[in-house]
């Protein structure tokens, strides 16, 4: 079922019938997971029961599971029958161009003649790009503009394409082609040929002849036409390395091959390529440095907004102060994304009344995200999501759990992805590579300009990252469609009507809590199959012992529990019943002791805690543990850990605790951080243990 969901993911974007049908399949996947996890939970609880009635309860448990599986199979059969009744063809048959897909590409199709009159903040970038096009060596170069959707790549390309110096440098052989996510080389070649072949009667006959050629023949024709000329070709919106290879006819076995469609005549030929993926730019020309576009500063954002909202171009200060104030607040919400600013300015220019501006101000995300409009920002950004491979989509959706403008530690992010099951190594048993694979996933999201880098280490690895507000809004919309997560925000007060009912769908898999713990704990929880629970921005209130009991009682199949920053007095022993828990985050909670029941968490992979008085000597029971962080122990008491043969990271153990263990058993350990002071004898023992 999971494989089917991966295959059908792109198809459902085009067809509402497929979307509804896929939703039913996803529901069946959730049901199957729930049946398995609940069976394991019940079997584990019965294993601890030594009464005679235990055997009878086991039979009842198996009978109930059997009935649920039968119901699931009947549901799947019904789903299969409905596919035929709805006329849904086999998923993955060809690359069909649905009506919606064609309409979207029509709206996105770019033209160099529709140049923007209000262009702000691109003067320096334009000058650099012009110099690269008309100067430099005479080899054929592919110059790339890279950036997230809506950042202005096409706008800058148009400005440069029509620049006086560029026109003079390439007077007879310039062409602009829009590529699109549904790359069709024949269409691209025809766009270029029609611009390069004049419209005289003789050349019109050539065009008629050319239109009858096959795709490979068109490529050969274009090569011959360009061979003796100095040309500039703009390829707008190239999505993948595969698309570039198809257009340039580059052999995938020989990436250094220049291709046979765009010849290198040694006379300064240039291709200007726009893409959202940095890897595409580097693949097209490894010798040229891609020009990465940046978000606008606050002042440049405001200048662009004024040029769009105040159509008479009068100084904004001559407008009522209340409009200027509202305008500045809305521009700040756009976070420097030019498309969002242009859409917002165009929307507000139609009605300059305070009432209209206030209405847009109070519902800005809804206005910016209008799906049906030509300039709907979500329509543009959604293309980046559709283009993601299936293994990256849950990783991108996971960013929807984090609060707006939240700076995310990549160490924590990787561990969460592993616990969620998003990261799969080449071989499931090869656990060592999973953190490396998670880092590869993040870097791919960054090169696709979906995620922003905040801080890098000295060896150029990403340490902190965050997501643009509008990208986060896209992730939230997609996540809600799939019951991937829900948030509980302090800004959404709980009414009396919600106090006695669930805030979330019973099938919701993840919850992200932005309100205080007491308020959240008081709500009735009807999400028994919740897999992840994360808390943010909870202030400094002390959480009473009893308040955390509801987590163990209501969320019995929880896999991820992150209480980082929640000020708690102690952790209830009921947490030890969460046998499916893989990640437990307790950093900066103020906890001094952990309950002994934590030793029952046999599935736990990550324990992240700091500043405990002492770590309970039951950790040795958690043999699935891979990442153990326990910095800042107050008391140096014995701690057995040499049974944790899967342990990969151990941080915070003292020298004395380390040498009391048989470290030769920890063959998977790749990172070790020790604390405390040691005597000379202990130092010798430590070096022996490392050897």
Describe this structure as you would to a colleague.
This protein is α/β, with parallel strands linked by helices and 691 residues long. It is 43% helix and 11% strand. Strands 9-10-11-13-15-16-17-18-19 form a nine-stranded parallel sheet. Strands 2-3-4-1-5 form a five-stranded parallel sheet, with helices on both faces. Strands 6-8-7 form a three-stranded antiparallel sheet. Strand 9 (486-488), helix 23 (496-499) and strand 10 form a beta-alpha-beta unit. Helix 13 (298-309) crosses helix 14 (321-333), helix 13 packs parallel to helix 15 (338-348) and helix 14 packs parallel to helix 16. The longest helix has 34 residues, at 53-86. The two termini are 48 Å apart. The model is unreliable at 92-100 and 490-502 (pLDDT under 50).
Key phrases:
691 residues, alpha/beta, nine-stranded parallel beta sheet, five-stranded parallel beta sheet, 11% strand
Largest beta sheet, briefly?
Answer: 9 strands, parallel
The portion of residues assigned to helices is: 40-55%
Task: Please indicate the percent range of residues in DSSP E strands (runs of 2 or more).
Answer: 5-15%
**Total beta-strand segments:** 19
- Given helix and strand content, the structural type is alpha/beta
Provide the residue-averaged pLDDT: 81
Query: Which sequence of strands runs across the widest sheet?
Result: 9-10-11-13-15-16-17-18-19
Q: How would the global form be characterised?
A: globular
C-alpha end-to-end distance? 48 Å
Rounded Rg:
30 Å
Q: Helix tally?
A: 27
Uncertain segments are 92-100, 490-502
């Amino acid at each position: 079922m999971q494989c089917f969901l991966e295959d059908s993911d792109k198809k459902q974007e085009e067809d509402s019938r497929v979307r509804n049908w896929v939703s039913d399949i996803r529901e069946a996947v959730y049901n199957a997971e729930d049946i398995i996890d609940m069976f394991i939970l019940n079997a584990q609880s019965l294993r601890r029961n030594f009464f005679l009635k235990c055997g009878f309860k086991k039979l009842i448990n198996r009978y109930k599971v059997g009935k649920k599986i039968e119901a699931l199979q009947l549901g799947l059969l019904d789903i299969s029958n409905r596919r035929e009744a709805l006329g849904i063809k086999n998923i993955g048959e060809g690359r069909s161009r649905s009506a919606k897909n064609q309409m979207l590409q029509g709206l996105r199709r770019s033209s160099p003649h529709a140049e923007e009159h209000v262009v702000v903040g691109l003067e320096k970038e334009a000058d650099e790009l012009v110099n690269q096009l008309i100067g430099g060596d005479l080899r054929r170069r592919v110059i790339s503009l890279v950036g997230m959707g809506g950042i202005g790549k096409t706008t800058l390309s148009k400005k440069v394409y029509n620049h006086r110096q560029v026109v003079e440098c390439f007077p007879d052989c310039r062409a602009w082609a829009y590529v699109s996510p549904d790359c069709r080389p024949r269409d691209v070649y025809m766009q270029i040929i029609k611009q390069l072949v004049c419209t005289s009667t003789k050349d019109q006959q050539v065009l008629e002849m050319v239109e009858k050629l096959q795709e490979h023949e068109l490529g050969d024709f274009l090569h011959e036409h360009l061979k003796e000329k100095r040309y500039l070709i703009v390829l707008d919106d190239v999505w993948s390395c595969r698309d570039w290879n198809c257009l340039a006819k580059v052999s995938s076995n020989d990436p250094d091959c220049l291709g046979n469609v765009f010849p290198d005549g040694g006379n300064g030929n240039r291709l200007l390529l726009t893409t959202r993926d940095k890897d595409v730019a580097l693949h097209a020309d490894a010798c040229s440095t891609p020009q990465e576009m940046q978000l606008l500063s606050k002042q440049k954002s405001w200048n662009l907004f004024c040029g769009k909202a105040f159509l008479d171009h009068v100084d904004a200060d001559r407008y009522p102060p209340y409009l200027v104030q509202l305008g500045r607040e809305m521009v700040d919400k756009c976070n420097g994304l030019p498309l969002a600013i242009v859409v917002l300015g165009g929307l507000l220019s139609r009605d300059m009344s305070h009432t209209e501006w206030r209405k847009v101000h109070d519902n800005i995300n809804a206005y910016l995200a209008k799906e049906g409009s030509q300039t709907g920002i979500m329509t543009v950004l959604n293309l980046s999501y559709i283009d993601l491979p299936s293994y990256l989509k849950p990783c991108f959706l996971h960013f929807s759990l984090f609060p707006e403008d939240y700076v995310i530690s990549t160490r924590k992010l990787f561990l969460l992805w592993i616990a969620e099951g998003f990261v799969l190594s080449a071989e499931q048993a090869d656990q060592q590579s999973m953190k490396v694979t998670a880092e590869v996933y993040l870097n791919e999201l960054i090169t696709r300009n979906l995620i922003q880098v905040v801080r890098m280490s000295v060896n150029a690895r990403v340490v902190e990252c965050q997501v643009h507000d509008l990208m986060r809004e896209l992730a939230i919309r997609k996540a809600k469609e799939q019951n991937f997560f829900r948030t509980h925000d302090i800004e959404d007060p709980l009414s009396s009507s919600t106090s006695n009912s669930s805030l979330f769908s019973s099938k919701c898999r993840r919850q992200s809590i932005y309100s205080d713990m007491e308020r959240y704990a008081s709500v009735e929880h009807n999400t028994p199959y919740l897999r992840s629970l994360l808390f943010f921005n909870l202030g400094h209130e002390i959480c009473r012992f009893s308040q955390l009991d509801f987590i163990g009682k209501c969320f019995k199949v929880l896999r991820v529990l992150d209480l980082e920053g929640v000020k708690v007095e102690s952790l209830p022993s009921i947490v030890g019943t969460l046998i499916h828990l893989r990640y437990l985050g307790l950093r900066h909670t103020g906890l001094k002791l952990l309950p002994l029941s934590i030793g029952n968490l046999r599935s736990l992979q990550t324990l992240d805690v700091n500043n405990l008085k002492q770590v309970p000597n039951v950790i040795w029971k958690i043999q699935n543990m891979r990442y153990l962080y326990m910095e800042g122990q107050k008391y140096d008491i014995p701690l057995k850990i040499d049974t944790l043969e899967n342990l990969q990271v151990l941080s915070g153990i003292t020298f004395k605790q380390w040498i009391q263990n048989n470290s030769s058993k920890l063959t998977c350990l790749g990172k070790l951080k020790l604390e405390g002071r040691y005597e000379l004898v202990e130092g010798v023992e430590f070096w022996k243990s490392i050897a």
